[in-house]
Specification:
The structure holds two protein chains of two kinds.
Chain A (H helix, E strand, L loop, with lengths): L2 H39 L1 E5 L9 H5 L7 E5 L35 E7 L2 E6 L9 H9 L4 E5 L11 H5 L5 E5 L18
Chain B lengths: L1 H23 L31 E4 L10 E2 L10 E2 L15 E7 L8 E3 L2 E8 L4 E8 L5 E8 L14 E2 L3 E5 L4 E6 L5 E6 H5 L13 E3 L2 E4 L5 E7 L5 E6 L12 E5 L2 E8 L2 E6 L8 E5 L12 E2 L4 E6 L4 E10 L2 E10 L13 E3 L2 E5 L11 E5 L2 E8 L11 E4 L2 E5 L4 E6 L6 E7 L11 E3 L2 E5 L3 E6 L3
Parallel strand pairs in B: 3-29
Antiparallel strand pairs in B: 1-8, 2-5, 4-35, 5-6, 6-7, 7-8, 9-10, 10-11, 11-12, 13-14, 14-15, 15-16, 17-18, 18-19, 19-20, 21-22, 22-23, 23-24, 25-26, 26-27, 27-28, 29-30, 30-31, 31-32, 33-34, 34-35
Classes of the chains: A alpha+beta, B mainly beta.
Chain lengths: 194, 471
């Protein structure tokens, strides 16, 4: 192979390598920018249960009907009480599952006997519309294990959350989509979770 | 014309089908009724536990130093939660104050201590041995002197223990979580007698166990079992029943404690049960008889005790949305009658979920519950003439919890749930905070406080500490 041919081959290789490199850089750049953009946009709405005042507006102001805000239960915090302030109306006639004794207007809390004297409470999410009556009762008279959360399988993640606009406690905030829930017990009041 | 008839016919048919559908279809067919029993509640096991009250005794090598101070029972000797005969107490605390003199790990609960001349008495629950334990400690160093106990199975249910023993020169009287009454000699811990109120009177165990603190009045133990007797008197030495007031009202034992009252020279015992409130004669020919009663104060969980005024007014409060009531008892011939002066929800006036408000300078001071609206968890002051009007509140930056408070040497000590102790100057005109300090990393610090000999005993769910608050 003459020097001329050798130089020719090198030039071709050089151009090919240059093309590959620039293509690679382009792809990496696009991927990087995309990643940055995704990261920047990857926030969702959530409410801080320690700020929530159980006003009931989550039930009425969500664009989704019924509301994407539901009651969740931090079992680790629950006292498993027979007399549950989140399940029973104040001064209920008896500690039973009769409709007149239940605080929840849609009977969305299922009460189950575990063993004397403990009862377990489970949220039936399909029936819950986020009225927070149980949350108010549990917060006032119990450990506060019942609390509200935006459910992200239901939330449409509006640019401006219509509940956040009317929340009297300023409890709604943007949280990373990778950690979309603020479950009581996993964090405490005042934690920085943004 | 023909096609028009067809269209009309179809329309009529559709309309008719719609009416039939509307008549036949039950829109509530998918509804499910919420009825009692869906929780599959089952009664307690049929195996009856054999409990021998006071069966065990341990004497330790430790001794106590003789002191003068006493805090003999729940709310103190005058039932007002004010320690009067105390040495001067500090008005402020330095960085190191108040000093923790000693601390003790206890069974989970809210039982408070009583103090008598250098000894501390506490009805604890030993979670490891599964027994109620009346424990005697030295106030000086917290060392245990003796322990009288008995096996009883108590599960965690927002704590286990939650009563304060009654102590006199000769006796210590306690009530355990499952209504077991025990009387022992104070100096030796020797067992005198025991009483199982569930067994003898059919007492229905209150939610979260017994919280009624026993009363010793002279040579009698005064108790309110609920069940078949709303109140009983027992000979403190022998355990013999002196009288039993039948519970014809079928009220239940509450978390409240019996408070004495003297009206027009007539001494009586007042008990705020789950179901109503009554006054039982404490002396004379009618001793042990119910003098008056009313079910106007009827709530499912009543923890605070009645606050009694000399003119016959009784302030009542409870949590779980109950609020408060000012009741007046007046003589009516040979009997007494009751009249409601004020009744309101927790957002509308002085209310409390667990602690009993304290009377100071003819005013009442207490901490509002969490369902009291904007003033929730604030220390507030009201005048008994109108308990719905706040004279002052501690403000939204000074909120407390379900914890206790006590007054001594013109200082009021308030314990928050998390173990923060606040000292204020109790005043009828304004909230005056003197000092505040986080004493322990606490949880559910709800037990009543006790003060004697310049020392304050406080506890959270698991730990009791003795603080030096004297000058």
């Amino acid at each position: 192979m003459s020097n001329k041919e050798k130089n020719k081959s090198n030039r071709r290789e050089f151009i090919q390598k240059g093309m590959r490199l620039s293509l690679g850089l382009s792809i990496a750049g696009v991927a990087g920018i995309s990643a940055l953009r995704v990261n920047a946009d990857d926030y969702v709405w959530q409410l801080d249960p320690f700020k929530c005042v159980s006003c009931g507006r989550c039930a009425d102001h969500c664009v989704v009907s019924p509301s994407a805000v539901k009651c969740v239960h931090a079992y680790a915090l629950c006292g498993y009480c027979d007399l549950c302030g989140g399940y029973l109306k104040p001064n209920a006639n008896e500690l039973s599952t009769a409709a007149e004794n239940q605080l929840c207007p849609t009977a969305a809390i299922k009460r189950k006997f575990v063993e004397e004297p403990y009862f377990e409470y489970e949220i039936i999410e399909d029936l819950c519309f986020g009225c927070a009556k149980c949350v108010a009762g549990c917060t006032a008279f119990g450990n506060g294990s019942l609390h509200l959360q935006v459910r992200h399988n239901l939330c449409v993640n509006c640019n401006e959350c219509s509940i956040a606009r009317v929340c009297p406690a300023d409890a709604f905030e943007r949280v990373p989509a990778s950690q979309p829930y603020l479950i009581k017990g996993d964090f405490t009041a005042g934690d920085d979770h943004a | 014309m023909k096609s028009k008839n067809i269209v009309v016919g179809i329309a009529i048919a559709i309309g008719f089908a719609g009416i039939v559908f509307w008549l036949v279809k039950d829109p509530t067919s998918s509804f499910q009724a919420s009825i009692p029993g869906e929780d599959n509640r089952q009664s307690a096991g049929v195996i009856e536990e054999i409990i021998r009250i006071g069966e065990k005794f341990i004497k330790f090598e430790n001794r106590s130093t003789e002191m003068n101070g006493t805090w003999t029972r729940f709310r103190g000797s005058d039932f007002d939660n004010i320690k009067k005969d105390t040495a001067p107490l500090k008005d402020s605390w330095s960085e190191e104050e108040p000093q923790i003199l000693w601390s003790l790990e206890l069974g989970e609960g809210h039982a408070g201590p009583a103090i008598y001349k250098g000894q501390v008495y506490l009805l604890d629950y030993d979670e490891e041995k599964r027994e109620d334990a009346l424990r005697c400690f030295s106030l000086e160093d917290g060392k245990e002197i003796w322990r009288r106990s008995y096996g009883v199975h108590v599960k965690r249910n927002h704590g286990m223990s939650r009563t304060v023993p009654a102590v006199t020169e000769d006796y210590v009287l306690s009530i355990g979580p499952r209504c077991h009454v025990m009387c022992v000699e104070r100096k030796t811990g020797n067992l005198l007698w025991g009483l199982d109120m569930m067994k003898e009177y059919g007492t229905e165990l209150p939610q979260w166990y017994t919280a009624q603190c026993p009363l010793i009045d002279g040579d009698k133990a005064i108790l309110s079992p609920g069940g078949s007797a709303i109140m009983i008197a027992v000979d403190i030495e022998t355990g013999e029943k002196i009288w039993e007031a039948p519970n014809t009202m079928q009220w239940k034992m509450s978390h409240s404690s019996i408070m004495p009252m003297t009206l027009n020279g007539k001494k009586m015992y007042v008990y705020s049960a789950d179901g109503g409130i009554c006054g039982v004669s404490a002396e004379g020919d009618d001793e042990g008889q119910v003098l008056w009663q009313t079910n106007e104060w009827n709530h499912s969980v009543v923890a605070p005790s009645p606050v009694i005024f000399e003119d016959g007014r009784i302030f009542l409060t409870a949590g779980y949305g109950a609020g408060g009531m000012m009741l007046k008892v007046t003589p009516d011939g040979e009997k007494f009658k009751t009249e409601i002066l004020q009744e309101y929800k927790p957002k509308e006036g002085l209310a409390s979920e667990q602690q009993t408000p304290v009377v100071w300078q003819e005013h009442m001071i207490g901490i509002l519950p969490k369902d009291a609206g904007a003033n929730r968890n604030q220390l507030v002051c009201v005048h008994p003439d109108d308990v719905t009007k706040m004279v002052w509140t501690s403000g939204k930056t000074n909120r407390f919890g379900l914890g206790p408070y006590i007054i001594a040497d013109e200082k009021m000590y308030i314990l928050s749930d998390d173990g923060t102790l606040t000292m204020i100057k109790p005043d009828k005109d304004q909230y005056i905070q003197l000092a505040q300090k986080k004493i322990i990393d606490g949880h559910d610090a709800w037990a009543p406080l006790a003060i004697a000999d310049g020392r304050l005993l406080m506890r959270d769910a698991k730990t009791m500490v003795c603080l030096d608050i004297g000058e």
